[in-house]
Amino acid sequence: MLNLKGEKVYLRALEPTDLDFLYKLENDTSVWEISGTLKPYSKKVLRLYLDNAHRDIYDVKQLRLCISDHQHNCIGLIDLFDFDPKHRRAGIGVVIVEPGDRNKGVGAEALSLLCDYAFSTLDLHQLYANILEDNEASIHLFQKMGFEEIGVKKEWIRTSQGFKNEIMFQKINSNES
């Protein structure tokens, strides 16, 4: 398997000990807008999720990894979702939980590690990301990591402030022969 370790962070599988972290993140209403969450998650439901987190990406069509610092603290999550092996593509998303951990290069490094894994190990042709138009930090991150804006879904996400546009970004595997 490809090395999922960088200078600042490494990516690892979710563990049962991540329950409290997952509970905090999934019940943080400030990220519900981007995750599509409509109601809180119980620890029981999240424990069941963790019990099945080992399942293969080809089976469940997604892969969620913990972004850990080198002191082994889980500081965020990064996902591949809507995995489509026939068309060799997947969506990708990243969240760094604490504002104090943001803008330090950890999201970029995690994204780089997972892109490398997706292109070299999973043999994907392309990755895409859907980002709300007002999420300037994520737009900047994905553009910096070589994702290109390919379209806008008008009034795509309903929020408490009304409908928001969602911008779609795409990265094609440049290392294919």
UniProtKB/TrEMBL annotation:
Statement: the UniProt record of this protein carries the keyword Transferase: yes
Pfam families recorded: Acetyltransf_3
Location of the N-acetyltransferase domain: 9-173
SUPFAM superfamilies: Acyl-CoA N-acyltransferases (Nat)
Domain of life: Bacteria
Keywords: Transferase
Signal sequence segment: none
Gene Ontology terms for molecular function: acyltransferase activity, transferring groups other than amino-acyl groups
PANTHER family the record matches: GNAT-FAMILY ACETYLTRANSFERASE, SPERMIDINE N(1)-ACETYLTRANSFERASE
Protein name: N-acetyltransferase
Phylogenetic classification of the source organism: Bacteria, Pseudomonadati, Bacteroidota, Flavobacteriia, Flavobacteriales
